[in-house]
Design goal:
The termini are far apart. Helix content is about 15%, strand content about 40%. The chain contains three helices and 20 strands. The longest helix is centred in the first third of the chain and has 17 residues.
């Protein structure tokens, strides 16, 4: 029996698509689920989302939630649950306290095809947590996206972060003195004072030299992340592959 070259190439393309995505993702007008949002629910993570704006004429059979330990590293063949969810909500009760998780959702149709993945969110279970990425204006506070006026940057090998954003998100009290260009922050009984352009900082009144002085960018003070974590007891995990840091307010 003679098989056409077109048929062989078509079957190969379908097979490769299934391998790449874990299912046959539609090339029609169907769009992914929207506005995936995490929230704490006791020691678990509650995820909610909106249905696709367009279904391409198909009928949704349900949703599957996917979880990863690093951004984008999903196994699309292995959702968090065995059966499709009918509602636009799911509670991940297997999440462990203090760990950072990343989530995404796909809608599946009655013909077993799926949409592409929803937006990705991150969440740190049981702690106030922040995920920032160098040169990115988007940060995540407990999984919720926040737009930064001044993104984190690297100067002389040190990561500088927007001080007020970090302090407010993790519960530190902060004041700014425009005349002296000084920022004062207090957390856990420790008070630090930093001055824009000056390499001498003060920790509870004691002078301390820092490698890179605070900088003013887009009206925001950027300070060395390591200095803050060392003196406030915050925990920071650095991902060199994505140039991102996960910061929590209490030891894990």
């Amino acid at each position: 029996m003679k098989v056409s070259k077109w048929l062989v190439l078509t079957c190969l393309a379908v097979f490769l698509g299934i391998l790449a995505t874990g299912s046959l993702t539609l090339a029609s007008a169907a769009t992914p689920p929207r506005s995936l949002t995490p929230a704490p629910q006791g020691n678990a993570v509650k995820l909610t989302w909106l249905p696709p704006e367009s279904l391409g004429g198909l009928t949704i059979a349900g949703y599957y939630v996917f979880r990863a330990a690093t951004p984008g590293a999903y196994n699309w063949n292995s959702p968090l649950h065995d059966f499709a969810i009918k509602e636009c909500a799911y509670v991940d009760s297997t999440a462990q306290a203090g760990r950072t998780y990343y989530y995404s959702v796909k809608a599946f149709f009655t013909n077993t095809d799926s949409t592409g993945p929803s937006n990705e969110v991150s969440f740190i279970v049981g702690q106030a947590g922040i995920v920032i990425t160098v040169d990115s204006p988007t940060a995540y506070v407990n999984g919720l996206a926040v737009t930064l006026e001044a993104p984190p940057t690297i100067v002389n090998g040190r990561v500088l972060v927007p001080f007020r954003f970090l302090a407010d998100s993790l519960g530190a009290a902060i004041t700014w003195d425009q005349a002296t260009q000084q920022v004062t922050a207090t957390f856990g009984g420790v008070t630090v004072i930093l001055t824009v352009g000056v390499q001498t900082a003060y920790v509870d009144g004691v002078a301390e030299e820092i490698d890179v002085p605070p900088q003013l960018k887009n009206g925001r003070v950027l300070v060395p992340l390591r200095f803050l974590t060392e003196h406030f007891g915050w925990q920071a995990k650095w991902d060199s592959s994505s140039y991102s840091a996960t910061i929590t307010s209490a030891p894990e």
